[in-house]
Amino acid sequence: MNTLSALTREATTPTPLPAMPATPATPATPDYAAISQRQQATWASGDYAVVGTTLQIVGESLCEAMDLRAGSRVLDVAAGNGNVTLAAARRWCEVTSTDYVPALLQRGRERAQAERLRNIEFVEADAQALPFDDAAFDAVVSTFGCMFAPNPRRVAAELLRVCRPGGRIGLANWTPEGLVGQLFKTIGKHVPPPAGIDSPALWGTRARVHELFGTASNAIQAEPRHFVFRYHSPEHFLAVFKGTYGPVLKAFAALDTAQQQALAEDLLQLVGRFNRADDGSVVAPGEYLEIVITRR
Questions:
Q1: How far apart are CA 148 and CA 146, in angstroms?
Q2: pTM assigned to the model
Q3: Cα separation, 53 vs 143, whole angstroms
Q4: Contacts (Cβ under 8 Å, ≥6 apart) of 44
Q5: pLDDT grade, residue 28 (50/70/90)?
Q6: What pLDDT is stored for residue 3 in this prediction?
Q7: Helices 102-114 and 83-90 sit at what angle, rounded to 10 degrees?
Q8: 196-218 burial, b if ≥16 CB within 10 A, otherwise e?
């Protein structure tokens, strides 16, 4: 206590006053709006579609795991350049594709036009405040998207709200132990994440999924899967992510030259740890959790 020494000097006896217990500081609530705005700028930087299109097989796998039926109303949340959007549309579902980065929605439109898929509506929307009525969709999906929103409980509440009772929520989320989970952990050692925000890779754990959806679901299926990253070399992997993948691009931009070199070395070591190729190329499995939730 700051007044302790003054009180002691004024006391009539030399007996020191007992120390007052410190009052625990109340943790400040994160400014989710400000963090979301910064994240939006991060994902808008670079050209995520360069990496995103390589992940198409994940969207196909998720649609099969959900057993999507023709005519189903499907919402793709944080759709990026539309991997699950396109996969669901190919199964003759009526799809609404959403993201809060307009440029990514435009990439999805271009892909849909190229494949002549006309059963898709593209809507700019934040996963934390979806502009749709309650129970508006038969299925709600997201691959490596809504897991990055800063307020996971709000996101989960929105996914549940817009999914009809008995409908399904399908997610593909990177695990903490997998390549991408470790990539974000490595970045965090060089550029600390916002205070008070949980790691997005927790969405790739059964514990977090049950925490967010357990009380509102009749069943949760969660199976580990692997997407295999394939690049010419570790240096090629780094160059693509550094030049096009927003979080990596922004991390390098926040560092000076020496710090950038240190981050690059750490990322190359990380890729080497996961790489199973012996010919100089990259064949690196990245673990994710494939989740199908049946809405109560």
A1: 5
A2: 0.90
A3: 12
A4: 101, 103, 104, 246
A5: confident
A6: 40
A7: 30
A8: eeebbbbbbbeebbeebbeebbe
